[in-house]
Amino acid sequence: MPDPSAVKAALQAQEIETPSWGYANSGTRFKVFAQAGVPRDPFEKLADAAQVHAATGVAPLVSLHIPWDRVDDYGALAAHAANLGVRIGMINSNTFQDDDFKLGSVAHPDAAVRRKAVAHLMECVDIMDATGSDSLKLWFADGTNYPGQDDIVARQDRLFEALSEVYARLGEHQRMVLEYKLFEPAFYSTDVPDWGTSYAHCLKLGPKAKVVVDTGHHAPGTNIEFIVAFLLREGKLGAFDFNSRFYADDDLMVGAADPFQLFRILHEVAKNGGFDKAHGVAFMLDQCHNIEAKIPAMIRSVMNVQEATAKVLLVDLPALREAQAAGDVLGAHAVLMDAYDTDVRPLLADLREEMGLDRDPLAAYRASGYAEKIVADRVGGTQAGWGA
Ligand code: AOS
Ligand code: ZN
Ligand code: ZN
């Protein structure tokens, strides 16, 4: 069995990134249910993220989204983060909320619109310079709704041209990560619909371009852990957007719908060196909390990732390899299931205590009085929302 102190050390070193927009109001196209105390600006979003880190000890990074988190002084925003004990993580671009992007952004048929999209991506790299962020996160809503609407290959050419331009602008220690999504908002063809398309572009671009796996962006039944294992083998896994899906891109809390899938994915990460800092894989939560309290939902999500990580670190790899080599199908499967069936909550509570934290992060957050304080303090102004 793995050495418990090594397991604890790996868990303590884990860094989970939370999204600034997960602290803001969000909803469906039917209704946004506003919550009291929700942040009114990016500074307050960082303050909420810092609470998640304070309670868990493993969530020190916060993804920003431009323009939702646009401020005058990004240096001041990064300094604010540092004062709160967190750091700016990936800079997420937005080429889907401008009227000009109706027919796409970087793959749009009109060169003027493509220039506007590239200018936005360049602005995001400027913000990386100003905040110290090392990753530009790209997700494109580009695609078509009707057969014949546009030329599929021409759109790939335009996309690659734009990506190349932005790639050339990246600094020595900066990189871009390209997310794929099966469908939505385009329904007939999506320009980056799957890992293969993202991988092909990243391979051509060079070593600073890697693939993002958003767990909610696949067809039902897709073996996501295979994709993860393959990308790690090729050195092309850049980041995760963790969330849960029951149907499509539900963006529910990670580990809620299918904790076993999360375990299987993280098992491939652990087995293939993906937790080593050298691989540079970002473990981000891309979630929206529409009906649940936002900060506790994020704490719970971080704990879900931590629990799954603890379980995969407990997999007896020598025993697994021995069973695999012997062709012992049930024996190999049993090694994995033994780890999955382990209750790791006591181990994690002990670890937290050793880290000077409360054994129960959710109880610690409740006891802190922060939830009541933000409801009392954040009066006036406009609450931030997904898209504002
Ligand atoms: C969209 O479906 C993608 O998951 C994006 O990663 C993300 O949710 C959006 O860009 C908000 O930043
Ligand atoms: Zn995503
Ligand atoms: Zn998504």
Automatic annotation (TrEMBL):
Alphabetized Gene3D superfamilies for the sequence: Divalent-metal-dependent TIM barrel enzymes
Domain of life: Bacteria
Keyword Isomerase: yes
NCBIfam families with a match to the protein in the record: RhaI_grampos (TIGR02635)
Keywords: Cytoplasm, Isomerase, Manganese, Metal-binding, Rhamnose metabolism
This protein's name: L-rhamnose isomerase
Native source organism of the sequence: Catenulispora acidiphila (strain DSM 44928 / JCM 14897 / NBRC 102108 / NRRL B-24433 / ID139908)
Alphabetical GO biological process terms: L-lyxose metabolic process; rhamnose catabolic process
Entry-linked InterPro entries: L-rhamnose_isomerase (IPR050337), Rhamnose_iso-rel (IPR013457), Rhamnose_isomerase (IPR009308), Xyl_isomerase-like_sf (IPR036237)
One term of GO molecular function: metal ion binding
